[in-house]
Amino acid sequence: MSNLLLLPGICLTSDIDSMLTHMNNARFLRELDFAKIDFYERTGLYKCIKRHGGSLVLGASTIRYRRFIKLFNKYLITTKVTYWDEQSIYMEHRFLTPSDNFINAIVLCRTRLTNCNAEDVVNELLVDYTGDDVENHKKEKPELSLELAKWIESNEISSTALRSN
Fold this sequence. Notes:
Family: Belongs to the THEM6 family.
Protein name: Protein THEM6
Strand order of the largest sheet: 1-3-4-5-2
Structural class: alpha+beta
CATH architecture: Roll
Mean pLDDT: 90
Shape: globular
CATH topology: Thiol Ester Dehydrase, Chain A
Oligomer: single chain
Number of helices: 4
CATH class: Alpha Beta
CATH superfamily: Hotdog Thioesterase
Largest sheet: 5 strands, antiparallel
Radius of gyration: 17 Å
Pfam families: 4HBT_2 (PF13279)
């Protein structure tokens, strides 16, 4: 499974906000859905989840907007897996300006797997099958970054509060 995939886009007249100058905030999330589907298919993640008898659902996402994507400007969406645990795969998506690689928006997502173990799924995809000794060719699980740990904690606090209502 590749660690980083790029998906190109362009801000069109159907993407702009009511001020008619830049990409609507909701359009970022719509484009992100297409990028995630592309990632699931091109990496084999979705097929692997199905092979394990599972399914997936978006559990949480947070987007931070940094700069407008103006009408007719091109952008790239990068997608990479940043961490995983038994239940979920965590991804980071970036909306980049191709000319200077400026990060216009950054998104953290938790994809929750149901009826299968996310660790098993990701480990199967990360194995380099070109070697004879599979265990020695396995790629390492990334460290949990402080930013992601705090985001997970924030979501857990929210879930606990919602369960008490």
